[in-house]
Specification:
Blueprint (H helix, E strand, L loop, with lengths): L2 H14 L3 H8 L5 H12 L2 H15 L2 H15 L4 E2 L7 E4 L5 E4 L9 H19 L4 E6 L18 H15 L3 E3 L1 H6 L16 H19 L5 H4 L4 E10 L2 H6 L1 H4 L2 E8 L5 E5 L4 E5 L1 H4 L27 E6 L7 E6 L3 H8 L5 E5 L8 H8 L3 E7 L16
Parallel strand pairs: 4-5, 4-13, 11-12, 11-13
Antiparallel strand pairs: 1-2, 2-3, 6-7, 8-9, 8-10, 10-12
Amino acid sequence: MNRRNTITAILFLLLLAGGFGLLLSSFFGGEGELEGLLRSAARERDLTAVLEEAESAANSDLDRNHLFIQLYGGIQRLTGRRVVEDAVAGNTVVKLSTGALNFVDVSVNALDPELPLAHARQTADFAGQLAAEGVPFLFVVAPQKIQRGADLLPAGLEEFGNDCADAFLGELEELGLEWFDLRPLFESNGIYSGWFFTTDHHWKPEAAFFAWQNLAQVLDLAYGFPTSTSYTDPNNWTTKQLEDYFLGSQGKRVGSLYAGVDDFTIYTPKFETYLTYTSQDGGFSRAGPFQQSVCFPERIASVDWFNGNPYTYYSGGDYGLATIVNHKNPNGPRIVLLRESFSCALAPFLALSCSELTTIDLRYFEGDLLDAIWGLDADLVMTLYTASSTRLDELFAFGGTE
């Protein structure tokens, strides 16, 4: 069957399935000619126009792969399917009972009880080496998209991120390490699911800002590193919401027709800021106010659901090592943050609490971690991983540990 006939057959299927109008009103996010064509067809009930112009519109708006992702996802939505399987077990997309998407590794049906304990012991060994040089260490757990105790998954599926984090923190407690769990704060505020993207596993900028507000208090009370309350006051920030702007990592695999697209919030401080943000492996050095140095306006210059990633507006992405110098807070602490992708949204805010914030992502970092930390003259080393990341071996490869 040639391409035109394939498109025709699939469009016929969608039109005949009684929810075509629902698809148009709920799941198209405004991505060009194909959307307008389909809206017109639904309004005028004219299939002929669709068949005559669909191919050229599809060529204009989407490449062939993305068109078929869109149509396939639309069919999955119409049939009520909540599990969209992938050739890679860990990339299977599930629709939670909230309507949001999440990856679930369908090949894992139990948590290895030794895994979190081993990671906790590795962390304790690392913290001990820091303590021997007088450097304090704090482990922070960020909330994952699937809330503890909530029945969100389709029947028969399980996910063990929170179980792993709970066991991990329990072992850290036994080993006498300092830790801070952000999950109870998110669970008690009543809007847990609303602070995660529908089509992506990451938290929204609003959630990262909330996390920073609470971490700023911990840094002050536990370590004597104060943050001006004028910085953490939401009234001293402007926010702009970009509507229908972000198709996340799960959404890219099933298309916008399956669960829609996300809005994206831009935070800009009303107070004066000046920072320098550099990364050798990222290949950049940026200086200026918050919105030009630690934020990347070029990442939101236009809507590009399948090829763009607005989430990297904050911090630019995941780099092995990057440093933010806050020229407006020269007396603040020098903090090293061991991070994964959740810290993209957090690091720009956290940098305002520091004189210098260095982020290290062990998935990409090359070199000796302890040597790097000694060279940074850190006042505090902090690890922030989301609950589900406590099961990932590569994030606990600190080096020099047993």
